[in-house]
What does this fold into?
Amino acid sequence: MPQWGQILLTLLCAFAVGYFLDRVHMPGGMMVGAVIGACALGVFTEQALMPGPAKTIAQIIAGAFIGSGIKREDIREMRTILKPALILLPCLLAVNIVTGLLIYRTGTMDLLTALMCCTPGGISDIPMIAADMGADPSFVVVMQFVRLVMGIGVFPLMIRFVTGGGHDAAEPPKARQKKTFEAKNVLLTLFVATVCGLIGKASPVPSGTMGFATLGSIVFACFYPKAQMPRTLRKGAQLLSGAFVGASVGYEQLQKLGTLGVPVLILIAAYTLACFGIGALLTRAGCFTRAEGMLAATPAGASDMALISADIGVENAKLIVLQVLRLITVVLLFPSILSFVVSLFV
It folds into this structure.
């Protein structure tokens, strides 16, 4: 089969499974399904193939999506969450490093992969960054999926059980408005993200492609409020990223995934302790109520947090802004810091 045929077949298999899981509302369904579809094709037929540029395209789109969602009012609002951010972000970095080192000591993966498995970013973003840095994306996808399911499905129930919810919060979240998209604005946003992403790719900065695309899109969105990216393109980035990861997973790598039992337990224990510990610090500092503090320490996505917090009676818009700031920091700064940590141990 010609290479273009292999690429097309890989994308079709990735889309088929990804679309199904997305329709049944599995967390990160398109990304996880694309990995499964492409991986299955590779294991059973050895025909899975995705070229390197697919990863670059996915990183640029993901960066544009994150950056274009940050407006001037969000930047202004971030000033009000400086204190909780200075508590939360260093603590999450410490949890990331310590947990990664513990997983590395199990001997199941290299240090960089172990650190990226614990990074509190998005399931669509971190595997791409991990692959860009030279880590094993197959391990990272599985571990990030576990972290995401914990953040969405387990931690909110635990927090509601422990605290009884947070009905004392006074600040309601901003109402969501249905967006309409103009081709000109989307193309301009993509153009800026592409230029910045390619500059980042050429730079020596770890995860430079996505980091620069995100940063460039944030600056562009602040000066050009019409900057926008539709969710369909975000799904496309998830598809490309998942297909790239899945196509790189052969039977040998698939066997290795069966060794992740202990690392998964370490990850769950670490983030459970972090939820209680960091939540307590935020509460004692007077930043949030107990329920809000524990939710702030839950490494779910910003959009997920809006739904999760409302479901358990917590309605504080600062939580959402804090999660957005966490996502930006993780994408822009954590990879370089983790790369430096790896250099200390190698």
